[in-house]
Amino acid sequence: MKKKQNIIDTATKLFSRQGFDGTTTLQIAREAGVTEPLIYYHFEGKDDLFTHIIENGFKTYFERLESLPTETTTHYEKIENLVALHFKFVRDRPDEIYLAFSTCPAKLKDKSHVCSKKLEKQRQWLGAYLSTCLENGIASNEFHSVQVKETVGLLYALILGIVRQRGLHLNTLKGMSRTTIEFCRRSLVK
Amino acid sequence: MKKKQNIIDTATKLFSRQGFDGTTTLQIAREAGVTEPLIYYHFEGKDDLFTHIIENGFKTYFERLESLPTETTTHYEKIENLVALHFKFVRDRPDEIYLAFSTCPAKLKDKSHVCSKKLEKQRQWLGAYLSTCLENGIASNEFHSVQVKETVGLLYALILGIVRQRGLHLNTLKGMSRTTIEFCRRSLVK
Amino acid sequence: MKKKQNIIDTATKLFSRQGFDGTTTLQIAREAGVTEPLIYYHFEGKDDLFTHIIENGFKTYFERLESLPTETTTHYEKIENLVALHFKFVRDRPDEIYLAFSTCPAKLKDKSHVCSKKLEKQRQWLGAYLSTCLENGIASNEFHSVQVKETVGLLYALILGIVRQRGLHLNTLKGMSRTTIEFCRRSLVK
Amino acid sequence: MKKKQNIIDTATKLFSRQGFDGTTTLQIAREAGVTEPLIYYHFEGKDDLFTHIIENGFKTYFERLESLPTETTTHYEKIENLVALHFKFVRDRPDEIYLAFSTCPAKLKDKSHVCSKKLEKQRQWLGAYLSTCLENGIASNEFHSVQVKETVGLLYALILGIVRQRGLHLNTLKGMSRTTIEFCRRSLVK
DNA sequence: CATGAATGAGATTTCATTCAT
DNA sequence: GATGAATGAAATCTCATTCAT
Known about the structure:
The structure is a homotetramer. Chain A is an all-alpha fold. Chain A has helices at about 1-20, 25-30, 35-40, 45-65, 75-90, 95-100, 115-140, 150-165, 175-190.
């Protein structure tokens, strides 16, 4: 049973660093200290292993999203929480979130693949969350009256960019979370 | 000669959509309407073809970066120009810039690969451009006195996110360029 | 103990329907409701299991052959009995006799394999039985003076064909036994 | 191009002797004097190669069936011709017809497989041919008034048995064709 | 320039079998 | 008796690349 977890951990690491197609089952097996057929004993195939990882990653991700506080004193706190959540997640589990946010596009060709579906769900969720936030913030005169759709897109892009950047360890500055939150605050809050 | 361009165009499209490892030479040949050996007549191999595309993409990219106006009335205009440039580039050549910004990480393992080098160069360039901008803006009291390094990182992440988002055609809103520029302006400019 | 029989029954069914090479030990185990190692507890291996089945099938088959009545009023009755026996056997145990008569030829390559030996023995037995029958029938003027060897071959082919046809459930007409016996009678008996 | 034929010929031989599952692509390649990937260059896979062989075998087979003379002086000649045709075919192309008549039952599980379809077609064709023959022969008082369906079944079984027997080289007597034809004639013709 | 045929190396997967419990 | 986990060996298949023409 420890070996199964080994496989999962190794695969997560390798997939996120080399992409799905760039990682071989032999490589996974070797680095996990098992033989190749064991992968096929625990999973139906390379694809199934990948799917398992993605599903698990998204499961944790959505759990965290769902447990964001719904009651806040200001609307901006909601955005602040969301940004902080992503910074935290990418610190805790850089490989998983990196995979989740940017699985090698090959997988995205098949719209019915778990990957595509989860990504779509994520996009929907974040879109809805941010839209509501912005609309309420504008209505209550807390925010500038920005264009909602476009601002949602840009905040999404910002989060996406941060996750990729940090998932790839291209940037490891400690203070970025704070800076980012203040940056957005100055822009949105009156 | 038209065939060579066909190969390049097809390969660019496929690499950006399926990743380097997820694209086969046969697929490129078929979609380009040629036979596989022709690829080897024009290029030394799959890797060489990829490198050619990346180099070309970055060449154009750097040319555009280099031709950004150096004399501007405000410091913010510099940032505005940079953001606009990326929006324009991703509209003109979505596949190329997408590739340039996010080549399947497998290629990045080899630090001496063209890909890694160009990406590094790009990061340096943008870093320097943005740092200078911010420092001067702060010095001249045009900008809030933000933390420079962190803000550079976040602007880089924002651009990266935008390019990925639009390169993957996940978002095609027309007004985002403007919204993004205003968003950053409100945040930076006093 | 019931499990051992389960294994045997399932294997018999699967081998006869999919051939030896087309059947996996996992499939046998699953359909028999046991785990793979149990097969190895009861048998030395897949080959041994197969051999066991074949030997058992042939044992019953030869017992039936041996108990054919030796004293008959006419010589044709002997042939009649033989044909009827095969019709009965294939009705009672379609899988076993089908296997016995047509084990995937792969097994026949090895002339020393149980399979080859039993089949050879069967051919000898039937050949001898039919030859004697025909010769006596001809000598006693009961039969037309047909070519013995060739007629033996054709009767053997007929029985083989019937067993295969019915073993595969391609034909399930009730009256075929009778029709076949009459067909041969008209042809042989003066 | 000669190599492609080599592959086909070798595969035909091996499949008929060892069954589909008992034959490996490596074995085919080696005996055909080519490398394994060449099989995959010319065919989509092992299954496709097999299908190609079956289709080709049946093509020739049906061509011969179709060119059986339709005008005959007696009805029995029709049956005579059919039996002779099978003896001739099995002499000309023992492997192909053996395969066609008895492809390892594994393939027959899938009712939509070419194999199953062709076999069904063959059964239909022979059934129709023999039925008509018998009915006309009985109507014109040339034949005994046998049970048509059952007799068709038995003649089919006889042909099947002969093809298997001779395809497996279990019997190579020269005179069997004649003997078989006379055997059936005595039984059917008044 | 261009291609049909071919291949070496290796990837994914299967499978009979065994081991530890 | 019985099983979950594991494996060595091998089978099917893929793919970048080359050769002969």
